[in-house]
Amino acid sequence: GTPRPPGLLAGGGSQGPANPAPEPKQVPELIRLKRDGSRLSEADIRGFVRAVVDGSAQAVQIGAMLMAIRLRGMDLEETTALTRALAESGQRLEWPEAWQGQLVDKHSTGGVGDKVSLVLAPALAACGCKVPMISGRGLGHTGGTLDKLESIPGFTVIQSPEQMQELLEQVGCCIVSQSEKLVPADGILYAARDVTATVDSLPLVTASILSKKAVEGLMALVVDVKFGGAAIFPSEVQARELAKTLVEVGAGLGLRVAAALTSMDTPLGRSVGHTLEVEEALLCMDGAGPPDLRDLVTRLG
Ligand code: URA
Predict the structure, then answer these.
(1) Per-residue pLDDT for 237 more than 60?
(2) Residues 132 and 212: beta-carbon distance below 8 Å
(3) Which of 100, 171, 206, 284 has the smallest CB count inside 10 Å?
(4) Which domains does the chain carry?
């Protein structure tokens, strides 16, 4: 037979199978590893995300792991593995062949008064793009696009993949939520981060944003990375690091990502509050609206 390189045989003879798959680690063990500063393997990260989605991880365990990640960080490989595991917790969207080259999206790291998505998604659609945007809710002190949209009576942010395709066919864009089918693991971790002071974590922000975008079947993505008092990360240095990570992890997942660094020391536009922001977005689409909002929409577009 083919000679085997040395070192690849575990056991051998009648002592049992070679290289038996290691037992998956229990959630407390995974938390302990990260708490003590160890790297988590891809299998560890997948095991944790599986426990989150199948309900076997308790809320306290999810909170503890998020805090361990917030305090100890994750390297690029761990962040990529987490992003992939979150993305693969649901289904990947598939679009008609004819849309190749038209599928684009934008995501913001979040800021006060940031209603750019409400204007930019329809603007891109008007230019012939298809924008299958999976967005988020309020996180920390930053507002959520989904919460803003729900201030419109009757607006439904949960849409099936089939309904999304219909919307893209009819109007060219949609803004929807994570759901049981779409990145469910991000939905759970996102809500947990919001109440455990673990929002401002570079690997968690990166995995949260890119997992949603990885399932969208995009040709290109622009991320608006905010810094300043009205953003998740006050410091420009941290925001730059986040932008770099988003581009690098995105590339690892086969996503073309461009990042813009934008200052957020004051709220964007003149309005803050769900209903008021929707009103301001409508004004902007009508060709009016505050200049800072118009400029940012144009620049990201
Ligand atoms: N937007 C997201 O979707 N996730 C984050 O963690 C921050 C902004």
Answers:
(1) yes
(2) no
(3) 100
(4) 97-300 (3.40.1030.10)
